[in-house]
Amino acid sequence: MARKGERVVHMGRPISFPVALLLVAALVGFVRRCDGGVTSSFVRKAEKTISMPMDSDVFRVPPGYNAPQQVHITQGNHVGSAMIISWVTLDEPGSSIVLYGTEKDMLDSHAEGRYNQYTFYNYTSGYIHHCTIRRLKHDTKYYYSVGIGLTARTFWFTTPPSVGPDVPYTFGVIGDLGQTYDSNATLTHYESNPEAQAMLFVGDLSYADNYPYHDNVRWDTWGRFVERSTAYQPWIWTVGNHELDFAPELGENTPFKPYRHRYHVPYRASGSTSPFWYSIKRGSAYIIVLASYSAYGMYTPQYSWLEEELPKVNRSETPWLIVLVHSPWYNSYKYHYMEGETMRVMFESWLVQNKVDVVFSGHVHAYERSHRVSNIAYNIVNGKCQPVYDESAPVYITIGDGGNIEGLANEMTEPQPSYSAFREASFGHAIFKIKNRTHAYYAWHRNHDGNAVAADSVWFHNRCWKSADKNECSV
Ligand SMILES: [Fe+2]
């Protein structure tokens, strides 16, 4: 270390002590801001993603006349004591009743839902049933049966513990899944982790719109494909661009028509006026779902809802604040570059002010994790237009790597931007494992590895609870 009066050699030229000090300070600042972004050395072999054919076993129709299929569940109210059960019958409407109970052989409660149906170009859907079962006990295993009176099928789920600050809870994270052989590998890989209790799905479900005439049969096959997970644990849905199904050339002018009929969410419970943006509490997490493809400018319903929603989050009750949105705000791949920029401009300062812990996005078919950065100082004239390290900012994770038919996004902007901590173009899924109010363990698993291997992992330190006895977000 240079002492005052000593000369230091920098790039072959002697420099003075004050200049050396400045250089050291700049280097420390740089490391603090960037912490050395890594582009993974793992290079996945470039291969085309291939649709699973219609006669694949994962698309098999359950046996029996009018047997319920495409069974999926999602949280049914704001605190996790209700569940929305959805399924499809093809031959006739059948019953919309769900029988349920805590003993497999004694389903002594029931609830009645409704069914709907829609047409899309030359396709007519089956009968899509949705039934909300309420007043469930927390942390309890329930069995439920659908298809009553015809060919009944029975499944089970476990409700989350009561909402509370130190409730351990493990979420899976998948995006842009589709229905290819790679999609199947991702789902199988996810299922091999016995700890995951609910799925945070960040949009782009079936990719039916990539098939001729938006072939809605591919919505049905996707529902059957994922049933092995969606019937047993709630998937928290985010809407993506592949849910738009906006096809005026086919006479289909109503955006989100198939998705809206098939996937119900508890949006009214959080005061939302649209199923595309809403919130839930689950265990120690508060999850806010945003809509990239609905208006979010000032005065719009989504803007007004989020403005009122964020102050409602009580970090003493739910320390972990998680945001799901399809189009990423920080993305260093050459695909969909800056598509999320306008929403970032509208909402980023709110997320920083409210110390959101993590934002999960999809859309880009690869994986990336950011440092804690924000880019909220710019005001057109001050020139402050670079992301900077920010303790209060979320980590941004892009995980649109479920394995859909459009293939991998394997071209990256170079050099790796300073906000990008780790990136890799592989398919996979992640686990967000909340331990208590201060710590959560996060791991991303690429499909090429066994489940025990985490290709990227990091401990999350809660933004409000940096120590267990002080909520730094409370006033
Ligand atoms: Fe997308």
Structure description:
This protein is of the alpha+beta class. Strands 3-25-21-24-20-19-18-17 form an eight-stranded mixed sheet, with no helix packed on it. Strand 6 and strand 7 form a beta hairpin. The relative contact order is 0.14. The N terminus is likely disordered. Fe (ii) ion binds next to loops. The site of fe (ii) ion has 8 residues, from loops.
Topology:
Layout: E1 8-10, E2 13-15, H1 17-34, E3 38-39, E4 69-75, E5 83-89, E6 97-101, E7 109-112, E8 114-116, E9 119-120, E10 123-124, E11 127-133, E12 141-146, E13 153-158, E14 169-174, H2 181-191, E15 198-201, H3 217-230, E16 235-237, H4 257-262, E17 278-282, E18 285-289, H5 301-309, E19 320-324, H6 341-353, E20 358-361, E21 367-370, E22 373-374, E23 388-389, E24 395-399, E25 420-424, E26 428-434, E27 439-446, E28 456-461
Parallel strand pairs: 3-25, 14-15, 15-16, 18-19, 19-20, 20-24
Antiparallel strand pairs: 1-2, 4-5, 5-11, 6-7, 6-12, 8-11, 9-10, 12-13, 14-26, 17-18, 21-24, 21-25, 22-23, 26-27, 27-28
The structure holds fe (ii) ion (FE2).
Residues 176, 204, 240-242, 326, 362-363 line the site of fe (ii) ion.
